[in-house]
Write a structure and sequence with these properties.
With 361 residues, the protein is of the alpha/beta class. It has helices at 17-26, 45-62, 77-88, 102-111, 227-232, 242-258, 260-281, 309-318, 343-360, and strands spanning 6-7, 68-74, 94-99, 116-122, 146-149, 151-152, 157-158, 170-173, 190-194, 204-210, 285-286, 298-303, 321-322, 333-336. It has nine helices and 14 strands. The longest helix has 22 residues, at 260-281.
């Protein structure tokens, strides 16, 4: 295994070294089955037991109430952009959305194919550097739900907590900060999160949905996109992404061994503050996100002299600090500090940035 590089990529993202080693060691023969996990049939008793273990781990780590279903569905979060209205619109005509960045904008574009969108709030005019005060939100009370993206990976804004909205079903994209802090399900009807940030590898999406919201899908909704059908079939209406399930089980074990989501939250605060403190005191770098809504998971930053970006990325790569380039839509730089990233690795990034700044200023 290569310990000489640090992967700051947006996703598929860094996995803990111990998880990679377990995958390596068990790749050809999993447990006592005699076959690779890649070959194991999803209808076997062994795989059924794996699925039960995953659901138990998720419920335990996130303290998921019994009146919520836990689904492990194919694809990523973008599929959920369409599945949400398919399953939750019912006899409503309108959907509420809060726009705080690239991914919430994408969710809106997909949802508007199915219903009228009420833009409850948007920070577009502020270049998505903040989250509009909840007092300013204009919520349509007749809408089926209100959607918000808990953490925006491109702009680097994060909701400090679940918004306090009365008499409205809240739906949230938690792809980039799932398992990084406790979740107050009392305010939520549904959350979804792609796996390739904090839950393993690409190809799978976790959906946790209140059971009273099931059974309301549009008649034309494909069975594999129907939350109720998937719930009844233990997320196996079609062949699931078996390897992604397996890696998720290892990630859940690792999170539990590390101390659970409470410990993950403490680490995320420590890691992000370490980098923010350096950026705020630097003459070369800057982060322009409203301090009240800075993300713990994704930290974008720019150089005051943009012509130095190429040089920064090249030298970072030479030092083994990989994939610090910002998203293609905005440029700049960004560091992903998902759960697998260690404090020591963030310290190495800060040391490199400081040394680079010293050379260039």
């Amino acid at each position: 295994m290569n310990n000489s590089v640090i992967n700051f990529g947006a996703g598929p993202a860094k996995l803990p070294q111990v998880v990679l080693e377990k995958i390596h060691d068990h790749f050809l023969k999993w447990q006592n089955t005699g076959v690779s996990i890649l070959e194991l049939g999803h209808r076997t008793p062994e795989f059924a037991a794996l699925g039960e273990k995953i659901e138990t781990s998720i419920r335990t780590l996130l303290r998921v109430p019994n009146d919520y279903a836990v689904l492990l569905l194919p694809g990523g979060a973008q599929i959920q952009f369409a599945m949400l209205p398919m399953n939750l619109l019912a006899d409503h005509q309108t959907l509420n959305y809060v726009e705080t960045g690239y991914w919430s904008t994408m969710a809106i574009k997909e949802a508007q194919k199915y219903a009228k969108i009420n833009l409850a709030a948007s920070s577009k005019d502020d270049h998505f550097r903040t989250i509009p005060a909840i007092e300013s939100w204009k919520i349509d009370p007749s809408a089926a739900y209100l959607h918000f993206t808990d953490n925006e990976t491109i702009g680097g804004v994060e909701f400090p907590q679940v918004p306090a909205v009365d008499n409205m079903i809240l739906v949230s994209d938690m792809s980039s900060n799932i398992f990084s802090r406790p979740i107050d399900f009392s305010r939520l009807g549904l959350i979804y999160a792609c796996a390739q940030k904090n839950l393993g590898i690409a190809g799978m999406c976790l959906v946790i949905v209140r059971k009273d919201l099931l059974g309301k899908a549009m008649a034309q909704t494909p069975a594999v996109f129907n939350y109720d059908v998937e719930s009844q079939q233990d997320s196996m209406q079609a062949t699931p992404t078996t390897f992604a399930w397996y890696v998720a089980s290892l990630m859940l074990d690792w999170i539990e061994e590390q101390g659970g989501v409470i410990e993950m939250n403490q680490r995320s605060l420590q890691k992000s503050q370490l980098l923010y403190d350096y950026l705020d005191g630097s003459e070369l770098y800057r982060n322009e996100v409203d301090a009240k809504y800075r993300s713990r998971m994704k930290i974008p930053f720019t150089l005051r002299d943009a012509s130095l970006e190429k040089k920064l990325f090249q030298q970072a790569h030479e030092e083994g600090l990989l994939y610090l380039q910002g998203h293609r839509s905005v440029g700049g730089a960004r560091a992903s500090l998902y759960n697998a990233m260690t404090v020591l690795e963030v310290e190495k990034l800060v040391e490199f940035l400081a040394a680079f700044a010293t050379r260039e200023l």
